[in-house]
Amino acid sequence: MKKAFVFDMDGTLVNSVYDIGDSVNYLLAQRGLPLRTYEEYLSFLGMGLGVTLSKAMPGYDKLPKEEQEEMRKAFIIHNTEHCLDKTLPYEGISETLIALTAKNAVLGIFSNRPEILAIKISNVLFKDSPFAFVLGAKENVSMKPNPQRVLAELEKLGIQAADTVFIGDGKPDIETGKNGGMYTVGVSWGYKGLEEIDGADMIIYHARQLLDIV
């Protein structure tokens, strides 16, 4: 029996590409740079804000570290105001989370997006199925595919990795789960396509399939 379900956020729980894309395009417009399409942003997401900015913004990698940090801060400020303009849960997610909670499953989030934003989105969109922990990017902490932060939270809750399911739409998610000894589930509706979740223990095509694992 699986006791805990740890989710990636973007491309797994929510479709956030529009709000993320709008916030990065805001930064590009400020610099007079060409805006990117939402389709382009689908391939820019998943490895953290720095990678997204690097792929979207010509010359970002050549900026001084201090200026890169200012760009990341500017994104967080803008996206904090706009991260829920267009972002919505995928079909069946909210109902499935509620059903998992009713079965006494512990829920968690491990995202590569800034932690302050992951917490805001989860508090608003998933208030009926509270998460035991919400982990995201912040200074001087390890990120996916390193599973140590998730394993530490599970240890606090008295849950073994073998009793945990890690769910995501990308290679870093599957690697995180496997690196931590968790059961891995790839979701077919994510940003990256089925090739990105090759090697997952299970691939699902609707969120309610998670209930079969419990």
Q: Would you kindly provide a written description of the structure presented here, covering whatever features stand out?
A:
The chain has helices spanning 17-30, 38-44, 49-56, 65-82, 93-102, 115-125, 148-156, 171-179, 210-213; strands at residues 4-7, 14-15, 88-89, 106-114, 133-137, 164-168, 183-187, 202-204. With 214 residues, it is α/β, with parallel strands linked by helices. The chain folds into two domains: 4-15 and 88-213, HAD superfamily/HAD-like (Rossmann fold, 3-Layer(aba) Sandwich); 17-82. A six-stranded parallel β-sheet has the order 5-4-1-6-7-8, sandwiched between helices. Strands 2-3 form a two-stranded antiparallel ribbon. The N and C termini lie close together (6 Å). The mean pLDDT is 95.
Distance between the termini: 6 Å
Question: Strand-and-helix sequence, N→C?
Answer: EEHHHHEHEHEHEHEEH
Derived structural class: alpha/beta
The helix tally amounts to 9
Which outline best applies? globular
By DSSP, the count of extended strands is 8
CATH domain topology of the largest domain: Rossmann fold
**Strand order across the largest sheet:** 5-4-1-6-7-8
**Unreliable sequence segments:** none
CATH superfamily descriptor of the largest domain: HAD superfamily/HAD-like
The biggest beta sheet reads: 6 strands, parallel
CATH architect. name of the largest domain: 3-Layer(aba) Sandwich
Radius of gyration: 17 Å
The proportion of residues in beta strands is: 15-25%
The residue fraction in helices comes out at 40-55%
Whole-number count of domains: 2
Mean pLDDT across the residues is: 95
Given this structure, which CATH class of the largest domain is correct?
Answer: Alpha Beta
